[in-house]
Automatic annotation (TrEMBL):
NCBIfam families: DPOR_bchN (TIGR01279), PRK02842.1 (NF002768). Keywords: 4Fe-4S, ATP-binding, Bacteriochlorophyll biosynthesis, Chlorophyll biosynthesis, Iron, Iron-sulfur, Metal-binding, Nucleotide-binding, Oxidoreductase, Photosynthesis. It comes from Parasulfitobacter algicola. This is Light-independent protochlorophyllide reductase subunit N. It comes from the Bacteria. Component of the dark-operative protochlorophyllide reductase (DPOR) that uses Mg-ATP and reduced ferredoxin to reduce ring D of protochlorophyllide (Pchlide) to form chlorophyllide a (Chlide). This reaction is light-independent. The NB-protein (BchN-BchB) is the catalytic component of the complex. InterPro entries: LIPOR_BchN/ChlN, Nase/OxRdtase_comp1, Protochl_reductN. Its cofactor is [4Fe-4S] cluster. Binds 1 [4Fe-4S] cluster per heterodimer. The cluster is bound at the heterodimer interface by residues from both subunits. Transmembrane segments: none annotated. Pfam families: Oxidored_nitro (PF00148). Its EC number is 1.3.7.7.
């Protein structure tokens, strides 16, 4: 995109195809994999089955040289049958954990299933344990259940559970909300600091004592589009949301920074001085990857809730054509600015009926399909190039310096297919 790209009403008025059928997504427990690295004084104790333990171990690729800050309190058959006092067993496991890990200041009890299934009210357990270990340890509960949550909602549930516990303040502060890789977070803080914006806090912070307070003079900007519950909790506490497109690509990053700059009275000259060089680098990096993306079609299955901002980036900055953009949930207050910029044309769908969506995808034969791991291999076997949605959450993709890498994630499978087709001349015919 360049400065002359027209702003249109886009897809803000496009009817949303709402689907309520079988889904193909990871559960919310997956968010622990990045949250436990971000919050260095926290521990995530998942109360669930051996299946949940295996999911975390396999998905996280736990390093043998470092003890992770998560674990599983495994429920046995006698627990589920109500033959033992689950609260007593949980208290015992928590006591052992905190005695062994005195560095823990925040203990998250994460339900892998609804309370009715695990026969244990973790919200009340968290309150009881907080009374026991306060003020040294704060015990918080949230659900990561795949029955109740989708892939990225685990982070949303975690941050939403933290908000009510933050202290009150009347100070005017900017709160950046959403877990980002440290290198990306540092870039955002540096850009805002260079504009003269001070008193910036982040949620989640590395340590509990670094967290901000909240009040009527707090303004917050979301860095992730899947934080609907956290957004609601912050509003409930009196904070005010700075609505903006999400900081993916040069255009999204500039619009996100501009919205914050306007809030804090940063003039245009200052804004341009701070952003001119990184904007130029981002444009150059995107253009290098967009050569293979330009004119190609893309189809999004609902998975991470990043789909609408990413479709905006790929269509406006990389020249792609979106056929369908599916998202697990569409939160208008969060996604509205990106929908306004997304060029008209694609089907916008919320929720999933996977069989029906597969039919639409197969009929469209897109050049690239963004989907979960469970769908990628079958679609590849049918000759469709795919991109794993989960990779877009685990890879640094926000802000200027990562814009080229973000475009590259989508260019890579197309480039690979082009090379394989050239190496195997009969490959295209077989598809």
């Amino acid at each position: 995109m360049n400065d002359q790209t027209p702003i249109t009403t886009g897809c803000s008025d496009t009817p949303v195809l709402k689907q309520r059928g079988q889904r193909e997504v990871f559960c919310g427990l997956t968010g622990i994999i990045w949250l436990h690295r971000k919050m260095q004084d926290a521990f995530f104790l998942v109360v669930g089955s051996r299946t949940c333990a295996h999911l975390l171990q396999s998905a996280a690729g736990v390093m043998i040289f470092a003890e992770p800050r998560f674990g599983t309190a495994i429920l046995e058959e006698k627990d589920l049958a109500g033959l033992v006092d689950a609260n007593q067993e949980l208290d015992r496991e928590v006591s052992r954990l905190l005695a062994r890990r005195p560095d823990i200041k925040q203990l998250f009890l994460v339900g892998s299933c609804p309370s009715e299934v695990i026969k244990l009210d973790l919200a009340r357990a968290a309150e009881r344990l907080t009374e026991i270990y306060n003020p040294n340890v704060r015990v918080i509960n949230f659900s990561g259940s795949g029955i109740e949550t989708t892939f990225t909602q685990g982070e949303d549930a975690c941050l939403a559970a933290m908000v009510p516990m933050l202290p009150n303040t009347n100070e005017r502060e900017l709160l950046l909300v959403g877990a980002l890789p440290d290198v990306v977070e540092d870039q955002a803080l540096q850009l805002l600091s260079d504009m003269g914006i001070s008193k910036i806090r982040v949620l989640p912070a590395h340590r509990v004592d670094a967290q901000t307070a909240l009040g009527p003079n707090t303004v917050f900007a979301l860095t992730q589009p899947f934080l609907g519950d956290t957004h609601a909790e912050l509003i409930r506490r009196g904070a005010r949301h700075i609505a903006a497109p999400f900081p993916f690509g040069e255009e999204g990053t500039t619009a996100w920074l501009r919205a914050i700059a306007d809030e804090f009275g940063v003039d245009q000259d200052m804004f341009d001085r701070v952003t001119q060089a990184p904007r130029a680098r981002a444009r150059k990096a995107i253009q290098a990857q967009a050569k293979i993306l330009n004119g190609k079609s893309i189809f999004f299955f609902p998975d991470s809730q990043l789909e609408i901002p990413l479709a905006r980036f790929l269509t406006r900055e990389c020249g792609m054509k979106a056929i369908e953009v599916g998202a697990p949930y569409i939160h208008g207050d969060l996604i509205g600015p990106d929908l306004e910029l997304l060029p008209k044309g694609p089907v916008i769908s919320e929720g999933q009926d996977v069989d029906l969506q597969l039919d639409r995808c197969r009929a469209a034969r897109p050049d690239l399909t963004v989907c979960g791991l469970g769908l990628a291999n079958p679609l590849e076997g049918e000759g469709l190039s795919t991109k794993w949605a989960i990779e877009l959450v685990f890879t640094p993709v926000h802000f200027y310096e990562q814009a080229g890498d973000l475009a590259g994630l989508f260019a890579r499978p197309l480039r690979r297919k082009s090379l394989l087709t050239g190496f195997h001349p009969n490959m295209q015919a077989a598809e």
